[in-house]
Amino acid sequence: MTTEQNVLFTIFGGTGDLAKRKLYPSLYRLYKKGIIKEQFAVIGTARREWTDDHYREIIIETIKDLIVSEEDAIEFASHFYYQSHNVNDSEHYVSLKVLAEKLEARYHIKGNRLHYLAMSPDFFGTITQQLNEQGLVSDTGFNRLIIEKPFGHDYETANILNEQIREVFDENQIFRIDHYLGKEMVQNISTVRFANNMIESMWNNRYIDNIQITLSEALGVEERGGYYDKSGALRDMVQNHILQVVSLLAMEPPAKLSDIDIRNEKIKALRAVRVFTPEEVKENFVRAQYDVGSNDDILLNKYQNELNVAEDSLTETFVAGKILIDTFRWKGVPFYIRTGKRLSEKGTQINIVFKNVPLNLFSEDAEEKLPSNVLTIFIQPTEGISLQINTKKTGIDLETETFDLMHQHSAETLANSPEAYEKLIFDCLNGDATNFTHWDEVASSWRFVDAIRKVWDQDKTNLPSYPSGSMGPAESDALLAKDGFYWYWNPISPDENEKK
Ligand code: NAP
Question: Quick one: pLDDT at residue 74?
């Protein structure tokens, strides 16, 4: 596990928010674990004219909550070098190459290069092309490319981007980040399924009634209004994170837990997701936008009044939908998904709702439904798992009561568990692509999302709204109610939701 890796990282967007908040702290954690130690160097590059010294000060600032001693932080930061660079200017790649070769010699790095594109995807094509043309893709060692989301704006733009990148890098050299796949409990989905016969043997349409996935955010768009207004919840959350979770839940058991086997099964599952006709989109998907409201007695603005958002914006900040997977295993089992901003609580959870017992022996009315068994996987901020079951209420009468068998990771475990980005960079260093998204997965996801987008883009009527601090619009509850279901996770009761 802790074999030292020798590698040269080049971080494009080295002055940016992602690099500072996620990448540098993750590299430091890997350094503390001895995964990168002496034979590594980092080139940070962006347009700002920083010196190496200033860059190193920034690095130390970004890891200040993690450092054990000042000497240690200085030693870590001494591996970082800065090169001012406009990615559109080919001259700069020449000096980048000179620096890369100098650092490889200094740190005895054997040609292993990890190019991290932590900047807008608009530049990905240019950067990869220049890396190739100016000879920055080394002949020895590995060359890997990590790229951030969003991967395209729709299938067409994603395909163009992919073709540009594929001119230089093979699919097995491309690591497309979906940071949800670095989360402990998302990775735990496979363990829960494949390490428990009781669960896997019931993981099908004979026993499962429906599956619900909620990715709920309490915050609004904050300073990201400019980006978000062009994207919306469907592209920002459903195309990537939600469909990735769906594929892990829906895939068939892989022959082995290797990246190739798992990816093949995920790809098959995503290909089986039904791409809706316009009529089916209207029936199965709802969107909405947050209105004024309150949370914890704080008054909240409506979306159209947010910074850099058009006053007449029709961008959705909430999506709920029903996904259907046309396989033997899942025929007839709806996967309900919902995601939104400014909801009452931040949290990601999956609820697997099992079918009811055929008769209720505990009621005079045998048709009266008992509460369903529900397996819940808590992804964030709580990490854990629970199972809702019915038992006998203590007393002389034969009454039932429902409670949860619950396991939650302790605060200590959470504090010591690797950050998503740390885990993903570690996997990339090991050439393990399990937790990255293959092009075929991206392509299937866009085809599904594009069909919905097309219908919504043609409809210029106002969107339904929901009060900030609620769990979304009434249309979201109605979507499940018409199938005889309800959202199992309800941080606030439907009555309260209505009142908001
Ligand atoms: P950001 O803060 O705006 O950083 C962009 C970086 O690109 C800066 O370092 C900027 O530095 C550099 N840059 C811009 N134009 C350049 C050019 N022509 N030549 C060279 N460098 C240039 O963005 P970010 O939030 O870090 O996001 C980066 C990527 O990660 C995006 O694809 C985003 O969608 C994705 N992402 C970010 C987060 C997050 O938490 N921030 C989360 C998920 C995904 P200069 O201005 O100095 O040139």
Answer: 97
